[in-house]
Structures are given as C-alpha cells and as structure tokens.
Amino acid sequence: MTKRVLLMLVGGIAAFLVLQGLDAADKWSSVLSPFFTAAGFVLTLVGLFARGSRQSADHAVTGGSLHQVRNVTGDVVIRAGGGTVAPPTAAPAEGQGGGTQSAHGARTAGDLHQIDGVGGSVRVEPPASSAP
C-alpha cells in the first residue's frame, strides 16, 4: 500500500467521523478501535519476525574501500588497502546472517565495512606505518 493510498484512507475515515457529529463519531470510533488495534499488532509482529536481515550502503559516499562480509564460519581479516581474507571453508553458518547486502550507487574514497553472520572473529587492520 502506497503512502498516498494510506493518507487517502485515513483522510476518508476522518472526514466520515467529522460528518457524523460528536456522539455518532464516538460510537463509530469505539467500534473501529479494536480492528485498528489488531491490525497494528499484526503489522508489528510481521515487521519484527518476517523481515530479512539486510545490510545496505546504497548511495553511500566514503573515503576509501568498501567491504561487505556475510555468512562466514571462520575468522575475517580486513587489511588496509582493500584486501579481505576469509577462510577457504567460508560456508554459511547456520542461524547467522541471511538477507542481502547492497551498496547501490556507493562512492568510496575511505573505508566502509558491512559485516554480518561471521562465526569467528573479525579483525580490521590499520594501515601499516611508513616510518622507519
């Protein structure tokens, strides 16, 4: 349902109640209230349990590299300069991660890390010092 349709529906109900007068509108709102309460409860449950986990960097502008890591059973090391190392047995870990990662329209010139569902440890290494 689009926002426009939702606004039209709410506006229509509000106009209907205004035209009914105060006493009739009070009676109508007493009848409609349980239905709106139940609908709100159902939508809350759907939003809480049915949404997939997502990571998104859509249209992000950063100052370097972009890393998206998902569903790795071992350790992950992110090295300065854009390298990411994951173990060769990087199969999805049960009960971890899921959903999607995205970086649509992202522009990077710095670091951006999206990490989800790692069964081991994650280490982000700082740039190596160039001092002697």
Sheet having the most strands: 3 strands, mixed
Compute the number of strand runs. Answer: 7
Q: Beta fraction of the residues?
A: 15-25%
List the secondary-structure elements in sequence, H or E: HHEEEEEEE
| Global shape | elongated
- Please tally the helical runs, counting DSSP H or I stretches of 4 or more residues: 2
Helix content range: 25-40%
Computed structural class? alpha/beta
Mean pLDDT: 75
Cα-atom radius of gyration: 25 Å
Which blocks of ≥5 consecutive residues have pLDDT under 50? 86-97
| Strand order of the biggest β-sheet | 4-3-7
State the distance separating the first and last CA atoms.
62 Å
Question: TL;DR of this structure?
Answer:
The protein has 132 residues and is an alpha/beta fold. It has helices at 3-20, 22-49, and strands at residues 54-56, 66-72, 76-79, 83-85, 100-102, 112-118, 122-124.
What would you say this structure looks like, in words?
There is one protein chain. With 132 residues, the protein is of the alpha/beta class. Helices cover 35% and strands 23% of the residues. It contains two helices and seven strands; from the N terminus they run H-H-E-E-E-E-E-E-E. The strands form three sheets. The protein has a three-stranded mixed beta sheet, with no helix packed on it. A two-stranded parallel ribbon has the order 1-5. Strands 2-6 form a two-stranded parallel ribbon. Helix 1 runs antiparallel to helix 2. It is elongated, with a radius of gyration of 25 Å.
Topology:
Blueprint: H1 3-20, H2 22-49, E1 54-56, E2 66-72, E3 76-79, E4 83-85, E5 100-102, E6 112-118, E7 122-124
Parallel strand pairs: 1-5, 2-6, 3-7
Antiparallel strand pairs: 3-4
Helix pairs in contact: 1-2
